Amino acid sequence: MSCILNIETSTSVCSVAVSQEGICIFNREDRSGYSHAERLGTFVQEAVSFADSHAIPIDAVAVSGGPGSYTGLRIGTSMAKGICYGRDLKLISVPTLEVLSVPVLLEHELEEGTLLCPMLDARRMEVYAAIYDRSLREVRHIQADIVDESTYREYLDKGKVCFFGNGAGKCAAALNHPNAIILKDIEPLAKNMFPLAEKRIAEERYEDVAYFVPFYLKDFVAKPAKKLL
Description:
Layout (H helix, E strand, L loop, with lengths): L2 E6 L5 E7 L2 E8 L5 H18 L6 E5 L5 H18 L2 E5 L1 H12 L7 E7 L4 E7 L5 E9 L6 H4 L4 E4 L15 E3 L11 H9 L19 E2 L6
Parallel strand pairs: 1-4, 4-5, 6-9, 8-11, 9-10
Antiparallel strand pairs: 1-2, 2-3, 6-7, 7-8
């Protein structure tokens, strides 16, 4: 197992964690709002100092790769790149919606066959969402959705779908279906990134530090809900 510095800044929560051998050994979070520019540098400095003081060499930096807030992702990516350059470390990108899914898989009992639909809030009734199975295999790619009662009907009519993330709450009324499960207070956090980051290390899926750019919310165009015939 590797020692990984994990950085998550895709939403209003700023978080940094250090993981080693599959265990989170350092964690800092700030939930006071979009204070990433103020908090992230301090959190990273504390994390690196913790690792150095315990003679734990950091092997890679993992950063949340979006979708997410333009400013938040830009700050997190810039910090991650700077550490990689300064310490000659590998850069790993972890999709934000997969990070959102980790606590759901670890902490909630789901029926066999339940699909996961992590959602990030956009504006009005728009969300940025993907659909995964319980192995985090992609069932539907990330896209912007204008949510109404028919948006996810093709999946809900076939079985359970679990909706979560900061975009799920506002869509609760539109997701009124017997097979819809809505979880509250699920956020993308650095302490949940390391299982995904370790998998990418095992697969040697690294980013080019010079050219990596995250997926911003502005990169997506909202698509109207699919109408069933």
